[in-house]
Write a structure and sequence with these properties.
The complex is a heterodimer.
Chain A (H helix, E strand, L loop, with lengths): L1 E6 L4 E8 L3 E9 L1 H7 L4 H23 L8 E7 L3 H18 L3 E5 H12 L7 E6 L4 E8 L2 E7 L5 H11 L6 H9 L24 H16 L6 H26 L4 E5 L6 H14 L2 E3 L11 H12 L19
Parallel strand pairs in A: 1-4, 4-5, 6-9, 9-10
Antiparallel strand pairs in A: 1-2, 2-3, 6-7, 7-8
Helix pairs in contact in A: 2-3, 4-10, 5-6, 5-7, 6-8, 8-9
Chain B lengths: L2 E5 L4 E7 L4 E8 L4 H15 L9 E5 L5 H18 L3 E4 L1 H8 L6 E7 L5 E8 L2 E10 H4 L7 E5 L2 H11 L7 E5 L4 H13 L18 H10 L4
Parallel strand pairs in B: 1-4, 4-5, 6-9, 9-10
Antiparallel strand pairs in B: 1-2, 2-3, 6-7, 7-8
Helix pairs in contact in B: 1-2, 3-6
The chains are: A alpha/beta, B alpha/beta.
Chain lengths: 335, 230
């Protein structure tokens, strides 16, 4: 079954063609990096306007790259839950129109379910059940993937998502946006033990996260130095900060896996591209006999291929949306 | 040429069908917050009630706004993707022009007005016998008073409120202005689009973008301090 996936929940306009939830024929992504750099983050109305301009071109690009036309497409899958409301609406409006004209099934999906499927799409041997750590600039959750498309949320962030903390610290240090890749790169030249930053909630039994305090601790330690124009050891700060975030993410995930007697972890979302996170997970996984899976780098950040893959799984279970499909910006991950 | 017109810029889902001179259907569905939920159903309902299929349509007209920022994104995206998917020619029509067109026989000079969402700000444009005169106006309705120098008919939603504000600004306008209360019409968009398409003036479907007339507040703010974005 050839599925057209559409994803516009935040700042990436994307469309993809995926065959049988497994084979990516094309994945077109128009980033709004120029806008992000300019405004230091995502401005919802500006992002939504950009989606409106680009959506048609991105869908055409996905079709052309795959050498297909809309007549070949057998279903449309679109992110309709969780994200920026105006942005989600553009993707859903496009998906409904295509479904209506071509008389093909439509399915609306939760953005986080898409990320969970990014890893299933990248690693066909990823077993279910497993524990998924979804972590990006907008979300930070631990999910027990019990069965195909059946989830239990074990914990989520009480304030900032880890990716958001990366962005804010990068901004504070005068680094580029988005902060994740920049801090990752810079950290390679720094000392991870140069500064001892707090590991918020690392000892707590809860599986929730909190990164706002860590961010404040970093800012408080250096704001006077910045005000006095002192040169900061940027690489050391970046490496020490990153280590604190990684420590918390790994410790909580391992706790969740062991509490559920599982041996499999799926790390997904934009921050899953972080090289230190991958390194530490690999080390500890080896030590404890836990298999840790990561998506292909191209599927870490928002993309529509993961939405098409999730759509396929849901359709196999007989689920469909009707043409009244609406958007729900704050919907929890269900099912 | 049978054309369907869609306009979701004004808190109604307006869907109509026209063939240039004749209106075949013209329906406004109330849709203050569920424009997206309803729009495809609305289109289907109008097509069925006109006893037409998508295949029989020869073109699509899309109301580009200005108006509700969220509303226009829905209509423009649906319009462009319908045209692309069904391989139909498309024409984007400014909603201000469609408002004026719908009452074109009532007066020689028409000023269409659309609420801009904050206090008494509006978008407006003048049309003389269907031809746009001057630039689009975006600002406080009282500043529109300076632009009215001869008898004019105002058309739009809540139009009497704007009439009163204009007369308050300049009492001499009391006898110069007449008003017609009206919502965006899908049939007006369809008829204007049909006329344009018949002259070969197609828009490239994927390039259709809303007519905002006003930058987002964040962009205005940042541009002021950081310089123009490319």
């Amino acid at each position: 079954m050839l599925i057209l996936g559409i994803e516009t929940s935040c700042d990436e306009t994307s469309a993809a063609l995926v065959e049988d939830g497994k084979t990516i024929l094309s994945s077109a992504i128009a980033t709004q990096l120029d806008l992000l750099k300019k405004y230091g983050g995502v401005v919802p109305e500006i992002a939504a306007r950009r989606h409106t301009e680009l959506i048609g071109y991105v869908i055409k690009e996905a079709l052309d790259t795959a050498g297909k036309t809309l007549d070949d497409v057998e279903a449309v899958a679109v992110t309709s839950r969780q994200g920026l409301i105006g942005c989600l609406m553009v993707g859903v409006a496009a998906a409904k129109s295509i479904s209506y004209v071509k008389q093909i099934p439509l399915i609306g999906l939760h953005h986080i379910e898409g990320h969970i499927f990014a890893n299933i799409l990248s690693n066909p041997d990823l077993p279910i059940p497993h524990i998924a750590l979804t972590v990006s600039g907008g979300h930070n959750m631990l999910v027990h993937v019990k069965k195909n498309c059946r989830y239990e949320i074990l914990g989520s962030t009480l304030d900032d998502a880890a990716g958001e903390a990366f962005d804010k610290i990068a901004k504070f240090l005068g680094l580029d946006f988005p902060g994740g890749p920049v801090i990752d790169r810079l950290s390679k030249q720094g000392n991870r033990k140069a500064f001892s930053f707090p590991r918020p909630m690392i000892k707590s039994k809860e599986l929730d996260f909190s990164f706002s305090g860590l961010k404040t601790a970093v800012i408080n330690m250096f704001k006077d130095k910045i005000a006095h124009g002192e040169t900061l050891p940027l690489a050391d700060i970046a490496a020490s900060f990153q280590e604190a975030v990684v420590d918390v993410l790994v410790a909580k995930t391992i706790r969740a896996v062991e509490e559920h007697d599982l041996k499999v972890v799926s790390v997904t979302g934009g921050v899953s591209a972080n090289s230190r996170l991958r390194e530490v997970f690999a080390e500890i996984g080896k030590k404890r006999g836990i298999k840790v899976f990561f998506p292909k780098l191209s599927l870490c950040t928002d993309n529509a291929a993961m939405i098409a893959a999730a759509g396929y799984a849901r359709m196999l279970m007989g689920e469909r949306s009707d043409l009244r499909l609406n958007v729900f910006p704050n919907a929890p991950l269900g099912g | 040429m049978i054309v369907m017109g869609i306009d979701t810029s004004g808190y109604v889902n307006a869907v109509g069908i026209g063939d240039g001179s004749r209106v075949l259907a013209d329906v406004s569905f109330p849709a203050r917050t569920d424009s997206l939920e309803q729009i495809v159903d609305n289109i289907d309902t109008v097509l069925k009630s006109a006893n037409l299929s998508l295949k029989e349509l020869e073109g699509i007209g899309v109301g580009l706004g200005p108006g509700s920022w969220t509303g226009i994104k829905v209509g423009v995206t649906v319009g462009k993707m319908l045209a692309f998917s069904a391989n139909k020619p498309v024409a984007g029509i400014p909603t201000l022009e469609a408002l004026a067109y719908a009452v074109r026989d009532k007066a020689p000079l028409i000023c269409s007005i659309i609420y801009a969402g904050i206090r008494d700000t509006v978008y407006a444009s003048f049309y003389r016998s269907g031809v746009k005169e001057g630039d689009y106006f975006a600002g406080d309705v009282k500043d529109l008073a300076r632009l009215i120098k001869e008898p004019v008919t105002l058309v739009g939603s809540e139009i009497n409120r704007y009439y009163e504000l204009l007369v308050k600004e300049n009492a001499s306008l009391e006898n110069t202005i007449t008003t017609i209360e009206s919502l965006p019409s899908g049939a007006a968009v369809a008829c204007l689009a049909a006329a344009r398409l018949e002259q070969g003036q197609r828009d490239e479907p994927l390039s259709l973008t809303p007519l905002y007339l006003k930058e987002s507040t964040a962009k205005v703010f940042v541009n002021k301090y950081k310089g123009e974005i490319k």
